[in-house]
Amino acid sequence: MERKKSAKNTVANRDIESRLAKVAPLVRGLLAEPSGNDDIPYHRVIVKSLTHKEARDFAASDKRDDLESCPVPLKRTEIPPLYANALEYDASAEELRKQLGAAIKDYFKTHGSKPQLVLLPGVGILYVEETAKTGLPLENEVALVTGAAGAIGSGICTALLEKGCHVAATDLPGKHLDSLVNELKEPAADHIIGIGLDVTNRDSVTDGFNAVSRIWGGVDIVIANAGIPLIASLIEMDLDDFRKLEKVNVEGTLLTLSEAGRHLRLQGTGGDIVVISTKNVFAPGARFGAYSATKAAVHQLGRIASLELAEFGIRVNMVAPDAVFSAGKRQSGLWQKIGPDRMRHKGIVDEKGLQEYYRNRNLLKARVTAQHVANAVLFFVTRQTPTTGVTIPVDGGLPDATPR
Predict the structure, then answer these.
(1) CA distance 323 to 358
(2) Which of 104, 114, 273, 343 is the most buried (most CB within 10 A)?
């Protein structure tokens, strides 16, 4: 009996989560205020949710106008709630958008403002979180970063947080992701969350995006960064090893782009996708064929996404770095794997010498850092120019590798 009850509760909870992941981005998009700026057309809000039994009961009760009965943390809310009792959760996203849009429009006519509280019978409560006005360029923006626990990924997460963004750091679950989130929680507080996500698994990618929508209401920025390397000549390369790279680098990026496009379109306020490419797309390296070929496919997917998503106000751009060895104390997994081979083939005795080799081969003699890569990402996501479908090289100047 208890087992049946538990199974029934699990199914009910999944239904609630599914409905919330569908409705929250629609509500968040409809609550965004037009900015009058063509490059950054909306001022967004953070939309949080309460789905526990008390919240569901309140959303469905005849005491819903008695805000003193509203669940914590909403007891001090003074603006009347919007009661969305006529939603057809099984309807298409466009039909739901029409239903919610009409309800919010009617609410505005009555109250002179958009609602801060939305009651969803059978689901719970959505509410706009009161956030301090920081003036930072990514205030109330939400980003999802794949491959966040590596050197480049962690550098990007840090930079986004510094600009006021809410960041969902995603990577394979484990100590690397946990340690990153713990490092960033002290300066970032509730602006950072960690989500275990396998980019090669469609359900995992979908669940990751849905989790962000349930926590903050939606996603505005997606950084497709996850990838793995392989050192092997074409003659000696094992086909299964190549297929592993293809699955992570190409299929993982495809699934990320697909889900990013779906969520950003659902929200309806545009957005930004940045694909972390590599100099090897333009100047491949010997014994690095699998990585170079799969990343070239990744780069092309990004360009295609820019063509397909532009009509929805979604910009897709690429950043192509070279030789990023670390971000602070966090080492690059790529270079930990390929470094010994590169040192052996170039007659270099230690990692310091390897870093100097890559530094001296670029025109500027520059050490390329994760911060440099993050700066290029910020250029795109803060919309400094009306740009989509292009690449910023972050390599110190490599004439053979720069698409200038």
Answers:
(1) 7
(2) 273
**Which element (helix H / strand E) includes 179?**
helix 175-188
The residue type of 195 is I
CB atoms within 10 A of CB 303: 17
Is the CB of residue 169 less than 8 Å from the CB of residue 247? no
Residue 150 domain flag: yes
Would you give per-residue pLDDT tens digits along the chain (404 residues)?
Answer: 555 555 555 667 889 999 999 999 999 999 999 999 999 999 999 999 999 998 998 888 887 777 777 886 775 556 789 999 889 999 999 999 999 999 999 999 999 999 999 999 889 999 999 887 889 999 999 999 999 999 999 999 999 999 999 999 999 999 999 999 999 998 888 999 999 999 999 999 999 999 999 999 999 999 999 999 999 999 999 999 999 999 999 999 999 999 999 999 999 999 999 999 999 999 998 999 999 999 999 999 999 999 999 999 999 999 999 999 988 888 888 888 888 888 888 899 899 999 999 999 999 999 999 999 999 999 999 999 999 999 999 999 999 886 64
Question: Which residue range(s) make up the domain with 253?
Answer: 142-394
**CA-angle at 294, arms to 340 and 288, nearest 5°:** 25
Residue 43's beta-bridge partner residues?
33
Torsion over CA: 94, 98, 103, 107 (sign): positive
Asked if residue 168 is part of any domain, the answer here is yes
The secondary element (H helix, E strand) that includes residue 48 is strand 47-50
The radius of gyration of the chain's CA atoms, rounded to the nearest angstrom, is 23
Are 368 and 324 in contact, with CB atoms under 8 Å apart?
yes
Does residue 209 contact residue 260 with C-beta atoms inside 8 Å?
yes
Cβ 118 vs Cβ 127: under 8 Å? yes
Q: Match 């006529």 to its residue by tokens.
A: 86
Omega of the bond leading into 73 within 30 degrees of 0 (cis): yes
CATH number at residue 304: 3.40.50.720
Q: In the numeric block, which tokens belong to residue 126?
A: 């959505």
Residues β-bridged to residue 318:
275, 391
Q: Does residue 88 share a domain with residue 158?
A: no
Question: Within a 10 A sphere around the Cβ of 349, how many other Cβ atoms?
Answer: 9
Residue 87 gets the label, from left (phi > 0), alpha (psi -120 to 50) or beta, of beta
Question: Is 121 found in the same domain as 148?
Answer: no
Assigned token pair, 102: 């009409």
